[in-house]
Every structure is written in structure tokens, then in C-alpha cells.
Amino acid sequence: MRLWIDTDVGTNVDDAVALLAAVAHPAVELVGVSTVGADPERRAAVAVGLLAGAGVDLGLVPVCAGPEAAISGLSAAGAEALLAIGPLTNVAAMTAAGVRPTQVTIMGGALRAVEHRGEMRTVEHNFGSDPDAAAAVLAVPGAVIVPLDATVAARLDDRLVARLVATAPVLESMVAAWVSECGEIVLHDPAALLVAAGEGSELGRFERRRLLVEPDGRLVDGGRGASGTVHDVVTALFGAPVVASVLALLADLKLTG
What we know:
Helix content: 40-55%
Order of helices and strands: EHEHEHEHEEEHHEHEHHEHEEEH
Number of helices: 11
Distance between the termini: 27 Å
């Protein structure tokens, strides 16, 4: 699979883990990365450092900051699939420009209230950061949605955090900063990567749902009425095999830097 990743790497460490896991995954050929969110240029620099440390030829895998560069890079890359693991601003622009691949996997939204970082959440960060973009992206049917209420199953305890750092020492400072700020690490985005790479049937349960996005970013199941568009949704995720798969992928990399 020729995969393009759109990410807000540089905040939550799970984006960085997803990028490295994509490099290692035998079913994935990473053909480009675009960055989204506040200060996309800084995030692009983080992505460049991670990919270079994983031995990626950056002459063949462009890293693009912001929507205009993302559209240009994606249209030239010949990507077959897109993994969106940040706010959907860039993906909405790709959709409007007609360059969005047919296969789209999105980490975002929450179909039911879920406890995360010590509070109950009904609006997930990626959708809540740019609700209009999320609504525009989901207006096109056929995506695979990996929502927060499923990905919270991929939470790391202290033992697994230590294993993550031991397996990928390049992530140590990012892990420490995130744990200090938020208290926990959850592999939301790496889980979505595994789904995009075709491992979903082994790692979770799927249902076809008719979805829409409310103005505040809330993801809503439109039921059997006329509202919303049809997408496949991961309704349950098996956390232990997700974590094991991600750590195994990172172990296959020879990381520097």
C-alpha cells in the first residue's frame, strides 16, 4: 500500500510512534507526510527528524507543511491510501482539490462518551479542532473511522511505557514530556495505522454506520434515517494485540538520532 500520512506530530507522542511504525510495516510503502495544526512547519521538522533517524530517504518521501503543500505533495506522490491522524484541515483541502485517495482511514471522533485523561469526553480532539473540516471530510462516504472510544483500549501502563522507550530510545524525550503533561500514553494513531494497513479484522470489530459531524465536532450516528454518510467504524479495539504489534514493528527498526 502506497500510504500518505497527515499528522499533527510534535504534540502527542503517539503520532511519532505511528510514523515510525509505518516505516517498519511490511504492508506499507510510506510515500509522503503532511503536517497540520498550529505551527505545521515545526511539526514538519519533527517528522523529518524521525524519518531521517529511521533511515528514510527524504528525497523520496516528502514532508509537507500545511494544506497547500500537502495538496501538491499528495498529488505528485501517487498515494493509494491516506491515514489522517490529526485535525482534518489538510484532508478537507485535499478533498476539495480532488486529490484525496479513495482509501481513507481517520483516527478521530467519538461515537460514545469515553473517559480519557481523567475526564469524560464526547468530542475528540481532532474533530473538535476543526469541526467544519471534519464535516467536509465525512461528507464523502467510504472512509474507515477509528474513534477515540475504541483507541483508548491501547493504553500503555508503566511497564509498557518503559518497553516503548527501550525499543525506540529516540522517543524518550517526547515520552517523558507527554507523560509529565498528560500522565498517560495511548496508541491512538498507531492503532489507526494498523487498521489502514489491513490488520483491522484481527484487532477489532467493525460496523457500517451512517455518520455526521455536529458544529462542535461531535460525531453522531445518524441511524437509519437520511442523515449522514456511510462509513466503516471500528466499534471495539483489542488493546493488547495492538500494543504488541506496534512494539514489534518498532523493534524491527534501526533507529538513530
